[in-house]
Amino acid sequence: MAVRGIARRWIINSLTIIILVLVALVVVLSVMMQQYVYNTIQSQLKGRSEEAGNLFGGYTDQISQDFTTTARNYIENFTSKNEMEAMAINLSGKVFITSTGFSPDNSQPMPDYQYALKDEAGLGVWVGNLNTGEKVMAVTKVIRNSGGGIIGALRYVVSMDRADRQILIIIGFLSMAGLLIIAFIAFSNLYFMKSIVTPIRQIGATAKRIAQGDFNARIQKSNNDEIGQLCDNINDMAVELGAAEKMKNEFISSVSHELRTPLTAIKGWAETLQSGGMDPGTYEKGMNVIIRESERLSGLVEELLDFSRMQNGRMTLMLEKIDLLAELGEAVYMFTDRAAAEQKYLLYEEPAMLSPVLGDVNRLRQVFVNIIDNALKYTAEGGTIQIIASEQNGWIRVVISDNGCGIPAEHLPNVKKKFYKANQTVRGSGIGLALADEIMKLHGGGLEIESHENVGTAVTITIPVLNKQEEA
User: Fold this and answer.
1) What is the mean pLDDT of residues 215-233?
2) How far apart are CA 441 and CA 448, in angstroms?
3) Which terminus of the chain has fewer CB atoms gathered within 10 Å of its CB, N or C?
């Protein structure tokens, strides 16, 4: 997998921190290991020097010549000559015998001897390089007589090359372990990031297809985690967008048909009237058709403008104190002749009186007209549309019911959505109920629909009555 984008940033950020931590850890462990090894060797050399001090403690009354004889005997019989080199130093600060059997080389540096002379315990330690370049550790023990005078010194020297090689080997193992840890973390991070980045890329590609209009595109979910939930959400979004696109296309088709029908009638009769030579009855009939279809066309355009205002949140109400009963009666009267012509029964049970409401006259009348028009459209010949108005507990309820075809249960939750039409065979734009519902919400009321297929539909419109505070 090519490491780029979020994976690259993740790997770089995480590995940078891990590498810094591991480097610091290796350095600290290396220093601690070196100190441990050096301290161990130094302890061994100090132990030898303490043993020598105890050995020469029985000769503290001797003079320097006696020390030379005793030291020579000690060096010649030194048992650890394979591990370290022992030297004897006289009062002049010169090595006069060494356990290697070779002549002493007094040109080599001996800072430890100078440290021992200045130390109260007579002990000096030095780590450094000889003239040959060999790195050594040296410990010198000054031998004093009972009077405190210096009669000589014993020096122990160990080569540090072998110890340094062992330390380097250990550092190498630590570094290798660090590199293995880094490699393991890098590969595990790559695997982890692949499990995240790959679905994200698939999501991006599918989202691009959806944005280009392919609403059938779906993302295959591989895990039930946050990314899996995101896949489900995008798939659901694609379904919703597909449904919205379908409703939009059906809306455009319906509106186009709704606009074409009155335009065709107007154009046809206009051409007929233009030709002349017709009797007064035919002329009047043609003019009536043109007027009626023009009003129908104007109503449809106004409905579309209202819907546009609703979508943009610019729908406003001209509120005033109104008699809702009068507006409902006028809406019913508008459909009386139509119901009779279509051989349908329009029954209106008008109450004696209803309290006034605060509302927009035109908008409320628009709601009543829309609901009654729908009831007539979806009711077959010989059917009944019943309108009942009542007041209870500060609310006015207007129920407009019919015994028409009804709405299938699967369509009922969506009928108040924009563009949605449960029955595509009946004329209409699919925005009437959405618009009516929005108007009632702006009035502080509501619009509820109850329907059963092949039984009928009941639409309940509720609006609060005008209280004294609002009236004031």
Assistant:
1) 80
2) 11
3) C
